[in-house]
Structure prediction request, 383 residues.
Amino acid sequence: MDPKTVRPETIAAQALGWIDEHTRAITPPIHVSSTYLRDADNQYRSGRVYARADNPAFDQAEAVICALEHGHAAALFASGMAAATAVFQALAPGDHVLAPQVMYWSLRNWLMTFATQWGLDVELIDMTDPAAVRAAIRPGKTKLVWIETPANPLWTVTDIEATVSIAHAAGAMLAVDSTVATPVLTQPLQLGADIVMHAATKYLNGHSDLIAGALVTREDSDLWQRIRKVRAQIGGTLGSFESWLLLRGMRTLHLRVAAASRSAQRVAEHFEHHALVAAVLYPGLHAAPGHAIAARQMHGGFGGMLSIRARGGEAAAIAVAAHTELWKRATSLGGTESLIEHRASVEGAGTPAPADLLRLSVGIEDADDLIRDLERALHAAHR
Prediction:
């Protein structure tokens, strides 16, 4: 299958149409060997040496992700955090890095603790404001600009093209955490980004049954080669069965993302002016600050993630979550089931999440059922 001649939906559904060359099986086998036979003359003509870096279980999943993102190459990791931190570990102590004030909390926390202790010069800024990026970037000193859009859990939107222009003019690389947008809605590499990251645990897999991460590069840069060395030498690689599960999950990616996006839009619009809701945070709403940018760089929907701020503060928000039945109180996002979470409780001190905020991951259930369940919970919390 030539990825240039078919639509992304077909690429994902058929996993690039690969057939096992030995058995002619449509579903790929699971390779579990940790090591590979060396040739009699001491060479490895198969290209396989050791499964930490050369596992054939990676090949098809990486190729599908790479094709969906229109990239040069992809690499799987043991988790989204392993993928994201590999990019920063490929830098050198003393390098200046820009990252958003609002971003995935675990990575934000890692940057401000481990990364700074290791010697990176990390600066958190309002990445939605190009003027703030221009003011913070240091030509020749800033090596990486990291953005996340839409950004967890406020779902703020960063203009990828504008930020790429600023970063590249200063000699910096730009990486995008596109977990929420997914390749279905946004292709950051097409907008000029150098690296795109996915917490593949979420939408790419879509079934809440594995932990995985992925990186895709626009070109074979020195940074990319260092990232691959980080993966091989530190060992944050994905297991064979998990690679197989990820590939299986991606076959329905477009159906799931489309369904979740449609339902999230309906949920957001329903509660936008609700008497018991102080605010709805969702880039698909026309009143959202980043809506115009999101409409320009997201195609086919605005994703399955939104947040609501409950009237009555933190106690009311926690009570709302306690009264839901269909919405499950759990951490994560991007699965077939809808999840609700009081995010400030999870993130703790220093969180940018308001105390009254509930993060919602919309699954593929009936939207009317989800709305009714949240309505019941809001009213129950205020009795």
Q: What stands out?
A: The chain has a mean pLDDT of 96. The longest strand covers residues 142-148. The chain has two domains: 8-250, 254-381. The radius of gyration is 21 Å.
